[in-house]
Write a structure and sequence with these properties.
This protein is mainly alpha-helical and 382 residues long. It folds into two domains: 222 residues, no CATH class; 79 residues, no CATH class. Helices cover 62% and strands 7% of the residues. The strands form three sheets. The chain has a two-stranded antiparallel ribbon with strand order 1-2. The protein has a two-stranded antiparallel sheet with strand order 3-4. It comes from Pedobacter rhodius. It is an enzyme of class 2 (transferase). Keywords: Cell membrane, Glycosyltransferase, Membrane, Transferase, Transmembrane, Transmembrane helix.
């Protein structure tokens, strides 16, 4: 396992380069990059087909930087400098446990003030370059794909908050006992929480830019499947606890690698299991018994599902149908994987189920309903 990027580099090249980056965080970032690419491609394709249209906006040009803009840029610069300078001056601590710095009040005030002034001055100089004696209003064209940066930022913020909220609900007993630790921990994220809250933010911003919700949902289906697959690579490589139940069964095929059938997740990032002999350092545990490597299964399945969705996107004409198919496939995939995955269960009226099983069931039902609705009303929705 590779809890940090440094472990990964050491495994590949044999070099010990202490870097303050976790493998899971790296793949979360790559998941956003993958989603950005897929979303952008679909927005461009749909605009070329005439399904989506560019938006005309009137903006004022030639205005100087306002006090509010300077303050906001200065505040942003202060936060960057406050943390960045502290990270640099305490590099070894950052390399060992960057969350301890990022999720705390620790920082460098002088660095914060310097970057605050730098960011405010930069904004002032940039606005001065285009300042006009008499500012004027002009009309600009905004293409659908040009809103992607804004979409990604708000999807990340709302998705992060949603993933934390749903994680707290899923592990409620532990959250009640350790609320602060749970909120500010580097782990503890629920995919469906991020999907629901991040998706809501995307739909809101898209609607403000003239994109109908069903069209935006269709754009997002393949991209979300791809992003999920990439993110799960990080879960597997870092050993973040999203593994399966104990698998004592013999391999069904002799040619199947052991790590693909039953895996102990050595050096996992959450420190679960028993100590590894002759291992020194922070990540020196492995599971006592091999478990199903469910993140890896999800990577394989979701990449196949992404390829399927990507291949049929030109054939689907009814608005909402693509996302309906995505909901069905996503729900079925997650429901099946929950059968062999470790998770907290709810007990209601004699029924035992996980949060993901409940949500994935609603996804399948909702996907079927949306698909029927899209097919019956394709002429009205176009």
């Amino acid at each position: 396992m590779f809890p940090t990027v440094s472990h990964f580099l050491e495994y590949l090249f044999g070099i010990n380069l202490p870097l303050p980056f976790k493998t899971f965080g790296l793949f979360v970032a790559l998941a956003f990059v993958a989603g950005y690419w897929a979303f952008s491609q679909e927005l461009k394709r749909k605009e070329a087909l005439g399904v989506l249209h560019s938006l005309k906006k009137k903006v004022m040009v030639g205005l100087p930087a306002t006090t509010g803009e300077l303050v906001l840029n200065g505040l942003f610069g202060f936060i960057i400098g406050y943390k960045l300078v502290y990270l640099i001056t305490n590099y070894q601590l950052a390399a060992d446990n960057i969350e301890l710095i990022l999720l705390s009040a620790k920082g460098n005030v002088i660095g914060g003030l310097f970057f605050a002034g730098l960011f405010a001055y930069w904004d002032y100089k940039e606005k001065n370059k285009v300042k006009l004696a008499k500012p004027k209003e002009v009309e600009v064209t905004v293409h659908p794909y040009q809103i992607m940066s804004n979409l990604v930022v708000w999807a990340a913020i709302c998705g992060f908050l949603g993933a934390k909220v749903f994680d707290g609900l899923e592990y409620w007993d532990d959250f009640v006992q350790h609320p602060i630790d749970r909120i500010f921990s580097a782990g503890g994220f629920t995919f469906y929480g991020g999907l629901i809250c991040g998706g809501a933010a995307v739909l809101y911003i898209a609607k403000k830019n003239g994109i109908k919700p069903l069209h935006m949902l269709d754009v997002g289906g393949p991209g979300m499947m791809l992003a999920y697959a990439v993110g799960r690579i990080g879960c597997h490589l870092s050993g973040d606890g999203d593994w399966g139940i104990v698998n004592p069964n013999p391999k069904p095929f002799s040619w199947l690698p052991d790590w693909l059938w039953s895996y102990k997740y050595p050096n996992n990032v959450v420190g679960e299991g028993i100590p590894i002999p002759n291992c020194s350092g922070k990540f020196c545990n492995e599971l006592a018994q091999g478990v199903y490597p469910t993140p890896l299964y999800e990577v394989i399945v979701c990449l196949i599902l992404f390829a399927f969705l990507w291949s049929i996107r030109d054939k689907i004409k009814a608005p909402g149908l693509m996302f309906g198919i995505y909901m069905i496939l996503n729900g079925l995939e997650r429901f099946c994987i929950e059968l062999i995955r470790v998770n907290s269960k709810y007990h209601v009226f004699g029924l035992s189920f996980t949060q993901a099983e409940m949500i994935s069931t609603f996804l399948v039902i909702g996907g079927i309903a949306l698909s029927f609705y899209a097919l019956r009303n394709k002429n009205k929705l176009a």
